[in-house]
Each structure stands twice: as structure tokens, then as C-alpha cells.
Specification:
The protein is mainly alpha-helical and 124 residues long. The protein folds into 2 domains: 72 residues, Arc Repressor Mutant, subunit A; 47 residues. The chain is built from 5 helices and 3 strands; from the N terminus they run H-H-E-H-H-E-E-H. A 3-stranded antiparallel sheet has the order 1-3-2. Strand 2 and strand 3 form a beta hairpin. The longest helix has 45 residues. It is elongated, with a radius of gyration of 24 Å.
């Protein structure tokens, strides 16, 4: 399929498709952080942090700046946070629906148990 815009979108979403990368973006919501700060907060190996940052950088989701021996990262476009917020709302709606279905399932199970108990008593 030769569709550069859709390909770009797919690659953008692929860059977001990893828990560590989502966590990095969440950590950067309040402003830039150094690689060392990200490593400490993520509690993963330095090579893993570097790999995840490289993917975000290659999709131009984050950008870096060097200050002495430290490298700092920040989100390039704050609209990324709006996207994450929308995703959170979508997931929240999904969980709400799941909770409703679970409550309904539990109620049906309770009704079946009550019927079974009544039948057992009636047959005794």
C-alpha cells in the first residue's frame, strides 16, 4: 500500500506501542528530564532507556539537548499529552463497560445460585 500519510501515522502509533515509551512520555509531562533521571524513575537498564528514547526520537516525538555531560529530553509537541489523555478516556470508558458487564454477570450468577438452592430445598 503506497499511502505515505497512513504509513506515517502507523509508524507514529508504533512508536507509542510500548509500556516503557508511554511511561517516558508520562514522566516528561511535567518538563524535561535527564537520561539519568529517566533511568532512575523507569527502573530499567540504561541500554533499555536509550533504546526507547531512540525510537521516540526517530519519530520526532521527543527531542534532546545536551548540557555538559548530561542529555535532557522533552516532548517535542505537547499535543502528544492530549493524545494520551484521549486514550486514557477511551480505556476508562472500556473499563467502565467491562465493570458493568462483570456486575451483570455476577448478578446472573447469584440468581442461578439462588434458583439452585431453592430447587435443592424443594427436592429435600
Amino acid at each position: 500500500m503506497q499511502d505515505p500519510l497512513r504509513q506515517f501515522k502507523a509508524e507514529f502509533f508504533k512508536a507509542l506501542a510500548h509500556p516503557a515509551r508511554i511511561k517516558i512520555l508520562e514522566l516528561l509531562r511535567d518538563g524535561e528530564l535527564s537520561v539519568n533521571e529517566l533511568q532512575a524513575r523507569l527502573e530499567i537498564e540504561p541500554s533499555g532507556v536509550s533504546q526507547q528514547l531512540a525510537i521516540l526520537r526517530s519519530r520526532q516525538i521527543v527531542e534532546s539537548r545536551k548540557n555538559g555531560t548530561s542529555v535532557y529530553y522533552r516532548v517535542r509537541d505537547p499535543q502528544v499529552f492530549e493524545l494520551l489523555d484521549v486514550a486514557r478516556r477511551i480505556f476508562g470508558n472500556s473499563l467502565t463497560n467491562t465493570q458493568s458487564m462483570l456486575a451483570q454477570l455476577n448478578e446472573e450468577q447469584a440468581q442461578l445460585s439462588r434458583r439452585k438452592t431453592r430447587r435443592t430445598r424443594a427436592s429435600s
